Every structure is written in structure tokens, then in C-alpha cells.
Amino acid sequence: MSDAGNQSCLMGADDAVSFLVCVFHALEEWAGLGQVEDYLSVLEYLLWVFTPLAIVFILPFLIVILLYLSILFLHVYKRKNQLREAYSNNLWDGARKTLATLWDGHGAIWHGYEIYGMEKIPDKGPALIVYYHGAIPIDYYYFLANVIIQKGRTCHSVADHFLFKIPGFKLLLEVFSVIHGPQEECVRALKSGHLLGISPGGVREALFSDETYPLLWGKRKGFAQVAIDSKVPVIPMFTQNVREGFRSLGTLRFFRWVYERFRFPAAPVYGGFPVKFRTFLGDPIPYDPNINATELAEKVQQAVQSLIDRHQQIPGNVLRALLERFHTKYKCD
Q1: Each residue's pLDDT tens digit, 210-246
Q2: What is the dihedral of CA 201, 205, 206, 212, to 10 degrees?
Q3: How far is residue 316 from each of residues 116, 134, 135, 311, 323, measured CA to CA in Å?
């Protein structure tokens, strides 16, 4: 409707209703609402055309999710006799066994998780396991699950102090024997005959390492002193593609500044890609009373670096790690 038409409409309105109708049409034309209606009609048509296609693609994904839930249930059911026996002995043993089964199922489904060298973990007696820390150490969770299931024992773990400040985590940390990490407490756990896992790189390695897999241990040697004081062997550990599963934005200067200034791990982590995970356990480094903590720390770092060099293509690549899910066999040198 033209401006002249609008004016004549308004001038010729006989009553309030006619006047309001004229005002509405004038506003509609002024705001271009007629074009909006055309756009909405096109969107409605496209929605009508593509909705069936969307449903066709969504439904198979729902079926796949249902299949994964079924597989996860089967993993739990397969362990039902072990679970029943565990619950008959101790409440927390049963809880640990149940959660270990769930995590083992998750690792098998989402990452095709495999572990090489499990026979190097002693069935009884202490040992210190030293591992490379991914952006999220989910591979270490899978390892702990396998120790519980295959070895029937719990591996104590050392975690950063901020983990103990997260609401609701206290019970989980207690049940799975996670400690803050003073050397005296670590030595006490090992002398009591337990396994103990520690990552010398810790949060710094989690945030600031990248797809080239550098070890960010600095001059840390406390873990080596713990092994010497406890007179236990050290077992190096590394998981292939752990950086491709989850990655961190910690390499950006701002997040590094926040951590260095406030010791707060603010760097966002992204990923969750279903890449292939393979954990490799190196040969145990036996207790040697003739070497000091500095020498042992260097020896352990070389052992972990050797696992990285042998089993990880540098730089890591998410697509390649995804394709490795389809490799049925892996040659472990």
C-alpha cells in the first residue's frame, strides 16, 4: 500500500475498527512484514521437505546409542559373578568392582581400549607406576579399572590438590585411594604393599603438553625419592593417542598466565573423540641402592620417552587415530 493509499485509508476510516485495520496495514508495509511472511513461508516449506530426511538420519543414531547401551550392559553382566562375590566380602570392594566394570566397558566401546604388558604389574607387593598425563587422564582411569578386574587389587593414586576441592569428589577419591601426594604418605602406601600411580608432569603436563607429546617434568624428582625410600620398582606407562582423545587450549598465553599466576587450571579441554587407545607398560626399573633420586628420575623419564618414541606417531593426528580403530592387530615391538 502506497503512502497516498495509507493517507486516504486513514482519512476515510468510518469507525475505530477500520482505523485500526488501516494503521496495522501501514505498519506492516513500513516494517516490511510482508517480506518476513514470504521468508517464513520458504522456511516452512524447507522444514516440510527436510524433516523426513532429518528423521531418517537421526533414527539410526538412536539405534546405535541403544546398541552401545546394550553392549555396556553385557560388559556388566559378564562380570556378574565377580560382582556378587565382591559385594559379599566388602561394600566398597563391590562398588569399586562395579565402577571398574563400567569404565572398562566404556573404554572398550568408545576407544577400543587395549593394554600391553599387564603381566608386568605384580599380583602382590608394591610398585610405583609413572605415566604421561593427558589433557584428561581417562586412559589412567581405564588402567585402574583393568588393575581392579584383572589383578583383583586397587592401585592408589596421587592427584593434584585442586581435585580435592571439587564438590562431591571426596567420597570418590576416598573409595579409590587417591591421595594428595606428600612424600611421606606415598612412602607409607608403598611400604604397606600397595601399587601407587603418579604423573610427575601433573596438571602442567595436562594443560601445556600438545600433540608432539613433550614430557613437562621440569626438575621434579620427588617421585624418584619415594621409590628409593620405599625400595620398590618403577614401571613406566604411556597411552597411545591420549592427546587425540582430548586436547587442551593451554598453549594459549592467557591460560598459561592464569595457571602460573593463580595455580588454577582454567584452560578449556575439548574433544572426546573415539580414537584408538593403547596403553603400554614398560619393563620395571628395579630398586638400585647405588643411584640417587636425580639419576633415577632421569632414568624413568627416559623410559617413558622411549615408550612415546616407539608407540606414538609425532605429531599426533585425530583422523589417523580414528582410523586406527579399524586396525585389527598391532605389532608391539
Answers
A1: 999 999 999 999 999 999 999 999 999 999 999 999 8
A2: -130
A3: 20, 13, 14, 11, 13
Inter-residue contact 316 to 243 (CB < 8 Å): yes
- Report DSSP letters for 136-179, one per residue: S-HHHHHHHHHIIIIISSPEEEE--GGGGGSTT-HHHHHHTTEE
Put residue 32 in one of left, alpha, beta given phi > 0 → left and psi -120 to 50 → alpha.
left
- The pLDDT tens digits of the residues spanning 265-285 come to 888 888 888 899 999 999 999
Q: Could you tell me how far CA 83 lies from the centroid of its own chain?
A: 26
Strands 195-198 vs 127-131: parallel, antiparallel or unpaired: parallel
C-alpha cell at 17: 475498527
Residue 179 CA to residue 182 CA, distance in Å, equals 8
- Residue 156's φ and ψ, nearest 5 degrees, are -65, 155
Which residues are known to be catalytic? 133
Q: Are strands 269-271 and 278-281 parallel, antiparallel or unpaired?
A: unpaired
